[in-house]
Each structure stands twice: as C-alpha cells, then as structure tokens.
Design brief:
Elements (H helix, E strand, L loop, with lengths): L9 H10 L4 H24 L7 H18 L9 H16 L6
Helix pairs in contact: 1-4, 2-3, 2-4
Length: about 100
C-alpha cells in the first residue's frame, strides 16, 4: 500500500502539486479542462441550464486524467487529496495565465 503524503495547508501542498505536473502536455491538458469547466459553469449560470452541471467533472477530469496517465505517467493527486487537488487546478490555471507556471 502506498504511503499518503500529509499536508498541513494548501501552501504546503502546492509545490508537491506542481511537481506532479512537470510535463508540459499534462499542464496543457489541465488548462483545457479547467477552461471548459469555467466556460460550462458560466453557461450554466448565464442560461440557467442547470442540467449542464453534470458535464463539469467530465470536462475537468477527463482532460486532466489523460494528461496524467498518458503524458505525466503518474496518478492524479485527486485520488489522495481531492480538495487540495481541485484548488491546485485553479491556482495552476491562474499561474499559467500569469506566466508563473510555463505552458
């Protein structure tokens, strides 16, 4: 059984999260998935199309997991740290837009 790393805060987790995303294609797949999540959420709220909410995890996770399994070749942090991982997706997305994390 794999040892689960413990983190006391998101600030402690985020460097680990970034180390699990060293492959540029994996990061790009995350960026596409997060962009789709933001777009679907905006469309859902703007149009009141609440049935689209089912598409949020599909859009986000499908791109991210393809990035991990086929390019990064590791297990997504979601399996061990679901909340921090979700937050990490959005922080990395912001950091990519700001140029702090390379595409």
């Amino acid at each position: 059984m794999e040892n689960v790393k413990r983190f006391n805060s998101f600030a402690e987790f985020y460097p680990y999260y970034l180390s699990e995303h060293s492959n540029s294609t994996c990061r790009r797949m995350h960026f596409i998935g997060t962009t789709l999540v933001i777009f679907i959420l905006a469309l859902t709220i703007g149009q009141g199309a609440w049935m689209l909410l089912w598409a949020l995890p599909l859009a986000g996770y499908s791109f991210a997991w393809v990035g991990h399994f086929f390019f990064e070749r590791n297990r997504p942090a979601t399996f061990q740290h679901p909340f921090y991982s979700l937050l990490g997706d959005f922080v990395m997305y912001r950091d990519m837009i700001l140029g702090r994390v390379p595409f």
